[in-house]
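Q: What would this chain look like folded?
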Amino acid sequence: MRRAMTLRAQLLVLQVVIVLAVVCVTGVVASALQERQLREAYVDQMTGVAQSVAHLPAIRDAFDDEDPSATIQPIAEVIREASGVTYLVVTDDQGVRYSHPNPERIGERVSTDPSVPLSGEVWTGTQTGTLGTSWRVKVPVFGDAADDASPAPVIGTASVGILESELRADLTEDRFWLLAALAGAVVVGVLCAAWVTRLVRRRIYQLEPEDIATLLETRGLTDALRSQSHEFANTLHVISGLLELGRTDDAIAFIERSGHGGLLTASTVAPDVRSPELAALLLVKTITAREHGVTLDVDEASALDAPGGPEASSLHTDVLVVLGNLIDNAVDATGPEGRVRVLVHDDGPVLRLQVDDDGPGVPEQLRHQVFKAGFSTKVTGDGEHGRGIGLALVRRVVDRRGGEVVIGSGGLGGARVTVELPVTSSPGGSEYGGSGPACSGHGRSAAEGSPADVARRATVEVPAGSTAPAGLREAAP
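A: My prediction, written as structure tokens:
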């Protein structure tokens, strides 16, 4: 089975992709701007050459000669060679050439339309002529006006051009340095990405997301054990005081009242959930819900075996994250004396998680927004900057697993959140297997072993009693 990409690799790949995308877009834009600037520079050069020729007295006077090309051709060729343009063609008002780089073309009509410059306007663009496709400028050549009140007549045109192949050659030469700069930017970007990835990994102590999820659940278990220990200590103080006062019967009655409903253990909360971590999570959430005045019930149909393979273990970790956040949101949303019901069931191809509550529910128009990070149906107060994350994390896990999450109305009258996660099967069947109690190891220290071992071994026993609200409000994961 192919191993999932590590967090370090994900961070590095993501940053490298961003660097490459930014550099590529920058290169395309810079190249387009470079070509535009080069063409504009050539237009300025060609316009200057054409206007100079059109205003030369020697050129204009030659139009009245018997053989204008005898005067115009030598002048045009000198200017063409000095300016570095591909061609400089002067024509009469019929488009007949008086000059051309190929003397054999003199006396022929131009191969492109001269109507724009003959109308007195300047034309710029790309056309294909006798020398090939070129970027060119055409300007009118004006004669002498009959008087000051009359406009000067157009007696011919001056056309200056540069072959597109020469323009591309100049552009390619400039692009070499642009590409070199972009390649350097890519190298620097990748090195910086690697450095940032290393820094982030050091800040989170080289932990993977699964490790962080396990630690968060272990912290919740530790908090529950601490609160349980405090409650138990208070109970012992009361019993000790009654015994010292000689009120034995009252002490016995107090013990009976404190133990009403039996001890709360993982086996009583979820007897058919044989996954140690999930059973421990449900136990801890039941205890913490009780502290908030909320009753948390695990549906009798809930059943889940311990994971039997690597893929099932990975799915199992995501189940803990999803269910923990859904329960926290439900408990947080209902008021005192509220109720939350949890169902966990392996339906074969999918693993179904369902959390109902008797809270106000989620309005239909908000059911898509609750999955956005930072969204909350409650006003954030002091010390509540972590709100608006829980359901966003649930959505992220569901999307990554290719599952489905639905918010609707539940049987308790409030909200119902249903999550279905696809179950990957191994050649021998489902990767969930094994049996045994949900929790074992009574009396062991919660500090022994890894965070996962602590979650497996912990057994919490507290007096039963209390109730729970629920609903759909964002809570920190």
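The mean pLDDT is 80.
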